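To the wet lab folks,

You asked to see what we're planning to order before we commit. Fair enough. Below is the target structure as tokens, and below that is the sequence we designed to fit it. If anything looks off to you, flag it before the synthesis order goes out.
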């Protein structure tokens, strides 16, 4: 139970901050208030979103933002970095303790930045360092123009395999629209067409045929655990570096829900993550490793990939990691998975089809064709009813990546609010009653629309009220009352 003094302190801090912002641009302050009202009025089921604590939010807005600090603690290219060094070291140490990692790099500004640092660290370790050694050089600037051209070309001739997008992979794992796909020659592994579960034999076969330098695991829309120990064996068999992007499920790793064969830290050469999502920190990234030979290359993320580190965000990361090291975070992580299972069961018993038949993590992927809808229609209809989700491709999706055939649901945010398994059953009923009531319209040519739909106003109003009831019982930032 929050003390009255703490409630007053938090409310005063944010109210005064908005007053200060209003003196420069009142419209921005108005929109910040609007965003809070919006989040308080909708059931947030976007799997990549969560609610950071007031302490994390406040740690981002301070004079650390004013300081340039390229380099690493004790080795900066700017003077006056004493306290940046302290806060970055603190964040790194918290991350190492939290994830049982030997090395943590907390500078990446985002998940894609973390992945780029990891990719270039691997290339520097596996391609650049041996090339320099073979030419008797210590630095790329010591190479002749001809030798540099040879090395530069070899960077772009490396191979990677990663999970296909429609199976739940991520754009930053080597796909052509993203810079990672322009950097690597990439091939995808997928899921079994019948079970929609990862096929490790397929991964093994692909790795042996394609001989990649890098094997990437991790997902944004795969509702099952991944056996990282199996993939590490495959990587070792073809002398590939095994990288895991745990951005979505980092909170489940921190909370020890994913352990042993399912723990990426103990099985991968290098691990990347965002620090928000299931970890409940600020928007940013991290790189972790237990491989000593990779650490020196990861440390060169700035200036190799990154610009000046965001010291204010690193301060917020330190706060978030400290919070995640508390015993109650393990309970939270466990509840996230239990809630996802309850949500999945509630949808399935009301006639919904779940991709893979269920979930073992924080997310649920629903095939909305069972309701006669596309993912785009389902996403919009649910928002009308006070439920925020995102449309998402399903394996072998006939509707493509824009309209999609699925919606992705995640339980981290609602679990942060304190909702439990009974609440998830009510959420499932709100979702299914909305989707059953939504009807696609016809296009001008008489075909069924993939975008437009109709939803009776009484269904919208009724389900918005039900969503509001859940939120009133489990309020967002109950200790925050803007005045």
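Sequence we intend to order:
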């Amino acid at each position: 139970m929050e003390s009255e003094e703490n409630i007053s302190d938090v409310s005063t801090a944010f109210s005064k901050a908005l007053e200060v912002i209003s003196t420069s641009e009142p419209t921005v302050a108005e929109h910040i208030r609007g965003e809070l009202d919006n989040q308080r009025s909708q059931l947030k089921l976007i799997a990549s979103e969560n609610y950071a604590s007031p302490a994390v939010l406040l740690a981002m807005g301070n004079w650390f933002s004013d300081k340039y600090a390229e380099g690493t603690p004790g080795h900066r290219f700017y003077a006056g970095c004493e306290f940046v060094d302290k806060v970055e070291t603190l964040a790194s140490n918290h991350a190492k303790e939290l994830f049982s990692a030997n090395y943590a790099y907390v500078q990446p500004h985002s998940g894609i930045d973390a992945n780029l640092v990891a990719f270039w660290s691997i290339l520097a370790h596996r391609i650049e360092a041996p090339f320099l050694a073979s030419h008797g050089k210590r630095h790329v600037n010591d190479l002749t123009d001809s030798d540099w051209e040879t090395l530069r070309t070899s960077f772009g001739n490396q191979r990677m395999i990663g999970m296909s997008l429609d199976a739940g992979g991520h754009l930053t794992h080597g796909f052509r629209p993203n810079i990672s796909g322009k950097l690597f020659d990439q091939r995808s592994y997928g899921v079994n067409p019948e079970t929609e579960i990862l096929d490790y034999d397929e991964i093994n076969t692909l790795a042996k045929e394609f001989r990649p330098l890098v094997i990437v695991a991790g997902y944004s829309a795969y509702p099952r655990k991944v056996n990282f120990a199996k993939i590490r064996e495959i990587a070792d068999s073809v002398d590939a570096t095994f990288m895991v992007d745990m951005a979505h499920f980092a909170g489940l790793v921190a909370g020890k829900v994913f352990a042993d064969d399912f723990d990426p830290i103990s099985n991968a050469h290098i691990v990347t993550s965002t620090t928000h999502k299931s970890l409940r920190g600020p928007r940013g990234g991290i790189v972790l490793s237990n491989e000593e030979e990779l650490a020196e290359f990861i440390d060169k993320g700035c200036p190799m990939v990154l610009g000046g580190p965001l010291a204010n965000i690193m301060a917020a990361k330190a706060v978030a990691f400290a919070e995640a090291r508390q015993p109650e975070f393990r309970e939270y992580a466990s509840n996230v998975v239990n809630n996802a299972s309850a949500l999945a069961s509630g949808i399935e018993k009301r006639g919904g089809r779940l991709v893979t038949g269920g979930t073992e993590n924080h997310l649920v992927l629903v095939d909305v064709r069972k309701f006669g809808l596309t993912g785009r229609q389902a996403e919009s209809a649910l928002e009308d009813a006070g439920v925020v989700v995102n449309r998402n491709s399903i394996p072998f999706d006939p509707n493509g990546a824009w309209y999609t055939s699925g919606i992705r649901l995640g339980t981290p945010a609602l679990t942060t609010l304190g909702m439990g398994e009974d609440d998830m059953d009510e959420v499932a009923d709100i979702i299914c009653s909305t989707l059953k009531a939504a009807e696609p319209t016809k296009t001008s040519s008489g075909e069924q629309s993939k975008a437009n739909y109709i939803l009776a106003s009484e269904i919208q109003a009724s389900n918005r009220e039900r969503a509001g009831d859940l939120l009133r019982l489990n309020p967002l930032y109950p200790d925050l009352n803007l005045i």
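Structural context that might help your review: The CA atoms of residues 189 and 323 lie 36 Å apart. Residues 64-324 form a domain with the Aspartate Aminotransferase; domain 2 fold (CATH 3.40.640.10).

Thanks,
Computational group
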